[in-house]
Write a structure and sequence with these properties.
Length: 331
């Protein structure tokens, strides 16, 4: 049987003839060269990215662009919206918290900007689509979409009610599908746009007491990264993307959570400034603080047991034990 198989293989090879064999070898060689070119290119781009990391970059203008921020009624969403308004952008604010959103609109008016408020629960797909249509009719095409709305349950998985798991997945992940589907087509048509996903370092590294939150943020990171590649595959060069992955920010959302050893809580204004700067410079990924870039890198090659060892001996397994979450809205 074996020799029969070998014989038929030989016959096939012979029937291909020297011309076909040569063509196939040339094809393989071309494929190898293409791969080599890809790897050398990647190395050059990596070195250039490392250099650029420390250099100031040119900034684009967002004056008169329509910027939509979800969860703009408090925290970094509010501050990002105000920062864009100061740069002359026209703001569209979405939140379920009407009073918070109104507060943001007043702050925007105080810096001479304009803001349009829409009450929108991003968990509700139909509401996202209908409010998006209203925005298009009443304000215009959104150029910069900041998916910022986010929630956390702050409970260990077995103590977490199903409704809270669903809420986190719906707000932190599913909403991004709906808003992107609503606003990306006009960005592509205009070849002008920017998608910003406010994820988290919890989208790259798991944590105790944050199972549903990490799951939602890992999903948001995967969604963002794949979408970015789809834009590349489709040669859409006028729509940019920025993935934001901060550690803990002092907005109230994670009140009570212990700081990770050696990593202080970030100030909201610092994060908002960095996010807007990343958009202005078309930066594709922003990890905050800078040392956070190292976490993903270490995780990419370290054995899982080594990561567990670090988590244990850096006292990172009980960070959420004292979590209380947002007790009050910031002003
Ligand atoms: N605070 C942190 O430590 C931290 C760290 C990393 C990433 N993040 C992410 O940053 C983003 C903003 O967080 P924050 O700290 O400013 O929180 P925040 O609680 O101050 O703001 C979140 C906003 O989202 C709104 N929101 C919640 N559910 C909504 C819904 N269904 N529809 C519309 N709006 C809704 C809230 O009303 C609120 O105004 C979130 O995505 C969060 O996961 C926060």
């Amino acid at each position: 049987m074996r020799s029969g198989g070998a014989e038929s293989r030989d016959l096939r090879t012979t029937s291909e003839g020297p011309g076909k064999r040569q063509a196939s070898e040339e094809k393989n060689m071309a494929g190898l060269l293409r791969q080599l070119y890809g790897h050398i290119g990647a190395l050059v781009i990596t070195i250039w990215a490392c250099i650029k990391f420390f250099l100031p970059s040119a900034k684009k203008s967002v004056a008169n662009d329509i910027v939509l921020v979800t969860g703009a009624g408090s925290g970094i969403g509010r501050l990002i919206a105000i920062n864009f308004a100061k740069l002359g952008a026209k703001l569209v604010l979405w939140d379920i918290d009407k009073a918070g959103m109104q507060g943001t609109a007043e702050m925007i008016a105080a810096v001479g900007g304009t803001a349009h408020c829409y009450e929108c629960d991003v968990r509700k797909k139909d509401m996202v689509y209908s409010v998006a249509e209203k925005v298009k009719e009443e304000v215009g095409d959104v150029a910069i979409l900041v998916n910022n709305a986010g929630v956390v349950a702050g409970k260990r998985l077995l103590d977490c009610p199903d409704e809270l798991i669903e809420r986190t997945m719906d707000v932190n992940t599913m909403a991004i599908f709906w808003t992107v589907k609503a606003f990306l087509p006009s960005m592509i048509a205009n070849n002008h746009g920017h998608l910003v996903t406010i994820a988290s370092m919890a989208g790259s590294i798991g944590a105790v007491g944050l199972v549903e939150y990490c799951a939602s943020k890992f999903a948001a990171v995967g969604l963002h990264e794949s979408l970015m590649l789809e834009l590349v595959a489709d040669n859409v060069n006028g729509v940019h993307t920025t993935l934001v992955q901060p550690i803990k920010i002092n907005t109230g959302m994670f009140d009570g959570m212990k700081d990770a050893p050696g990593i202080p809580t970030l100030e909201p204004q610092y994060v908002a400034d960095k996010v807007v700067e990343a958009v202005l410079t078309n930066q594709k990924q922003l990890c905050l603080p800078k040392i956070a870039y190292l976490f993903s890198y270490l995780k990419s090659w370290m054995p899982v047991d080594a990561m567990i060892h670090i988590a244990k001996y850096s006292d990172s397994l009980d960070l959420m034990d004292s979590f209380v979450g947002r007790q009050k809205k910031d002003s």
